[in-house]
Design goal:
Blueprint: H1 11-21, E1 27-31, H2 38-41, E2 49-55, H3 58-73, H4 93-103, H5 115-123, H6 128-136, H7 139-149, E3 163-171, E4 174-178, E5 186-190, H8 196-209, E6 218-224
Antiparallel strand pairs: 1-6, 2-3, 2-6, 3-4, 4-5
């Protein structure tokens, strides 16, 4: 099994990793420098996905458990057209977030033959837990990230982090939150391709508001290259 290394919320590193996995260079991650007004206007469109990095905390765990229990008690099922996988390994949430970003936009991203395209092909028909187990065993995908970052970097194999990545996507007219630590995608209501970034930013602000004592939030978006 490959060692899973923590990911930085760094567009340059993310882009090298995505391109190594087979995402064409016409797509890239960029920083979202603010979550309101003019700061959002600087982000190239269309925005295919938004990734939020935030600190893990007791508040998050309480909110996650409450949210999951409510959904499961209502008999909610994962939407068939939304690709969602469960995170199995620690330190792999960054890779999960990137996979969620690309896998739910293959109608716009023409993946090259390679690691990610093969993984998505093999994952067809699997549930979220099985997709997560498949990713855990896709050592080439995990090793590809290690190859991107390890040159000239001292790596602690057992390093753990207290931050977490999640993804927001627009699918079939709705805004979905995809979290590898949650049982189901979270539907945050209607959105459109035009309003997706602004609507995702609102949810990101809710995460920040729930953690007034924490810093370390960061947002990136998957957009066309300039």
């Amino acid at each position: 099994m490959a060692v899973a290394l923590p990911m930085e919320s760094n567009p340059e590193i993310m882009n090298k990793y995505l391109h190594k996995l087979g995402v064409p260079e016409k797509w890239q991650m960029v920083d979202v420098i603010g979550l309101e007004g003019d700061a959002l206007n600087w982000v190239p469109r269309p925005v295919l996905a938004v990734i939020l990095l935030f600190p893990l905390s007791e508040r998050y765990e309480h909110h996650r458990t409450q949210q999951e229990n409510e959904l499961l008690s209502k008999g909610e099922q994962a939407p068939k057209d939304v690709f969602h996988l469960k995170q199995v390994l620690s330190n792999i949430c960054g890779t999960v977030a990137l996979v969620h970003s690309v896998a739910n936009n293959t109608h716009q991203i023409d993946l090259k033959d390679g690691l990610l395209k093969n993984y998505l092909k093999d994952s067809k028909g699997l549930d979220a837990a099985a997709k997560g187990a498949l990713l855990e065993n896709s050592t080439n995908i995990l090793e590809a990230y290690k190859e991107v970052i390890e040159k000239g970097v001292d790596i602690e194999d057992n390093e753990t982090v207290n931050n977490h990545f999640i993804t927001f996507i627009h699918k079939d007219g709705y805004l979905y939150e995809l979290d590898g630590r949650k049982a189901l995608p979270i539907n945050h209501g209607p959105t459109t391709e035009v309003n997706f970034l602004e609507d995702a930013a609102k949810v990101c602000r809710q995460f920040i508001e729930r953690e007034p004592d924490h810093i370390g939030f960061n947002v990136v978006a998957l957009v066309p290259s300039q």
